[in-house]
Amino acid sequence: MTTTRRDTLKYTGAAIAAMSGSRAASAATRAEGNPYAVRSGPMPVPYVPRRGYADGPYGQVHFRDTGEGRPLILCPQAPQTSRQFENVYEPLARRGIRAIGVDSPGFGESDPTPFVPTASDWAEAVPAVLDLLGIDQADVLGHHTGSMVATETAILFPERVKKLIVNGPLPVSEEERRNFLKFVEEGEINFVYEHDGSHMQEAFATRYRMYADGGATPDPKTITRYTVERFQGYAPFWTGHHAAFIYDHNAALEQVMAPTMILTNTGDQIYENARLAARIRPDFDYVELQGGGIDIVDQMPEEWADAVVGFLTKA
How many CB atoms lie within 10 A of CB 1? Predict the structure, then answer.
């Protein structure tokens, strides 16, 4: 009988699970005899996709891959990483989707570009991940800044994109663009790293308020992760919003040929921009979730996953 790669992975996974169970039991036994142990017994482990690296045009591209199902590339908002989707990897996998989160170059564990990047530069990293995984064509979804990376991927590599989901598109007027870029210059490019570390507390407080603006009660642990992700990349964090605000999403939406859905939620701070995108492309599917904020993926993971998969599986 011929053993396929999938069989090998399945058997290997079963063996790892068995060893993990054995090690957990052994650890529990050791803890029982240790007077300093906090507790014994199994500890809950989150759903963690397998991680890997592809050789991209600017160095290594880090990604997370759930491994089975219909492939869907996930492009995160800046300055977050592919961990943005950690609360929907499992719901997507449960719905038959192979979710592949990609760190934009310079963010998370992806190498940076040797210049100030654009959304187009980040889009060029996506085919490298697909090639490494042996995927000819995938669906692509991006959230906020990631929606622009996803849009560019569909424009630059149309043969690689089956369906496109722009979650939080940002078509803007020139006045809005100037105001956004002023915010980047004053609040991010000129950001001051204080000797007493108070800049971390302020960054946490700012992100806490942004989460709460969506009407949800922020979890300090989640906000801590967001704050850390802002500063952990190899590129200056301001390059994320800079790339977003110089991007002409108005014109780019007109160029998209792939079947596309605009996804938004009524509590998103750029909800009205999504409604404008729907007017620019009335032929696109349009879905809005009720409530939430900019962190809709964490706030309403099951509803979000339903909306995504509903479009992807639509004939």
Answer: 4
Q: Which one, of 142, 162, 113, 129, lies nearest residue 252 by Cα?
A: 142
Residue 213 confidence (pLDDT):
86
The number of beta carbons lying within 10 Å of the beta carbon of residue 103 is 29
In a domain, 223, yes or no: no
CA distances (Å), origin 77, targets 35, 119, 244: 45, 11, 9
| Distance between start and end Cα atoms, the chain | 36
Q: What's 279's domain CATH number?
A: 3.40.50.1820
Question: How many domains in the chain?
Answer: 1
What is the pTM for the complete model shown?
A: 0.89
Mean of the pLDDT values across residues 65-91? 98
pLDDT digits (tens, 9 = 90+) for 146-173: 999 999 999 999 999 999 999 999 999 9
Residue pair 153/302 in contact by the 8 Å Cβ criterion: no
DSSP conformational letter for 291 = S
Q: What is the DSSP string of 146-214?
A: HHHHHHHHHHH-GGGEEEEEEES-----HHHHHHHHHHHIIIIIT----TTSHHHHHHHHHHHHHHHTT
Give the DSSP letter of residue 20: H
What is the C-alpha to C-alpha distance for residues 256 and 156, in angstroms, rounded to an integer? 10
The domain containing residue 151 runs over which residues? Answer: 50-175+236-312
Q: Is residue 295 part of a domain?
A: yes
CA distances (Å), origin 40, targets 36, 46, 47, 292: 11, 18, 21, 38
Is residue 218 in some structural domain?
no
CA distance 246 to 189: 14
**Both tokens assigned to 179:** 């105001």
**89, 101 in Cβ contact below 8 A?**
yes
Sign of CA dihedral 21, 26, 27, 31: positive
304 touches 88 (CB < 8 A) = yes
Rounded Cα distance between 275 and 286, Å, is 9
